[in-house]
């Protein structure tokens, strides 16, 4: 069994290379020959030749692709070439954009913080007026969470206390897409991260900032503890993955006033090093097991079609 692990050519931090090596090691254990290829090696080649990638012929075509990046055009291209891609380009695209995640989950009845999407503007124009903020304030009041639609590690998530802070933040973020969100006070500085693989929660941890910061992200200085999720939290995390078509993901869940779970976001390419350090569970092993199972299913379906 051969696979390609697609990574981003321009992300070189230890955090990312470490995860890549873990995935390759877990694949080896599972009997899979997983080769790392970057999105700068496997270019989207829109020519008449049926080449998959530079200096690659049909026989080099992998059995599957583990897509550990957000280059969704490349992911879709590989799918169109008929290769199974985990996670799918569509799932990655929806998770990458927090506003799309909200749209799809809320439509399916998943409880999330009340959210308003900022109107889209053009990069050479920005917001020529911010009157729409009146509606946002009337609906959500302060303190209010402002999030860039594309961001991670808590770095593009902000808490604003009043109209002036909101205006300032919007001016700094524009013209990038952003959303406004109800602040879940009961969850200030704490949440839970559930790692889901193949519709099962394989590990979970409680994260807390340990200081005044409302964000619980570990990369942002937060702390972690192993956590036994409630059935409600487990079912919710699995349900989100089903709705978004994810093979694996890290689901962030907030605590409501009565401890009821409220979905914060879903990460299609969740870093699983922290959850390993916290729980000893290596999500990479579960991911390989899941892929083998899925490919078994795909092969079975194909065999049936031929019969
Ligand atoms: N609406 C909210 N109310 C309270 N806390 C929030 C809210 N949204 C986010 N947070 C906190 O901020 C953290 C980062 O937000 P999140 O949407 O997960 O962005 P990121 O992709 O950067 O992790 C969350 O883990 C949570 O601790
Ligand atoms: Mg998060």
Describe the structure.
It contains 9 helices and 13 strands. The protein is of the alpha+beta class and 307 residues long. It folds into 3 domains: 2-87, Rossmann fold; 114-183, 2-Layer Sandwich (Dna Ligase, domain 1), CATH 3.30.1490; 187-289, ATP-grasp fold, B domain (D-amino Acid Aminotransferase, Chain A, domain 1). The strands form 3 sheets. Strands 11-10-9-12-13 form a 5-stranded antiparallel sheet, sandwiched between helices. Strands 2-1-3-4 form a 4-stranded parallel sheet. The protein has a 4-stranded antiparallel sheet with strand order 5-8-6-7, sandwiched between helices. β12 and β13 form a beta hairpin. α2 (72-80) runs antiparallel to α3 (89-96). The chain is globular and about 60 Å long. The two termini are 23 Å apart. The model has no long low-confidence stretch (mean pLDDT 94). The site of magnesium ion has 2 residues, from loops.
Number of strands: 13
What percent strand?
Answer: 15-25%
**What hetero molecules are bound to the protein chains?**
adenosine-5'-diphosphate, magnesium ion
Envelope shape: globular
Name the structural class: alpha+beta
CATH class type of the largest domain: Alpha Beta
The helix tally amounts to 9
| Domain tally | 3
Could you give the order of the helices and strands?
A: EHEEHEHHEHEEHEEEEHEEHH
CATH architecture name of the largest domain: 2-Layer Sandwich
- Radius of gyration, in angstroms, nearest whole number: 21 Å
As an assembly, this protein is single chain
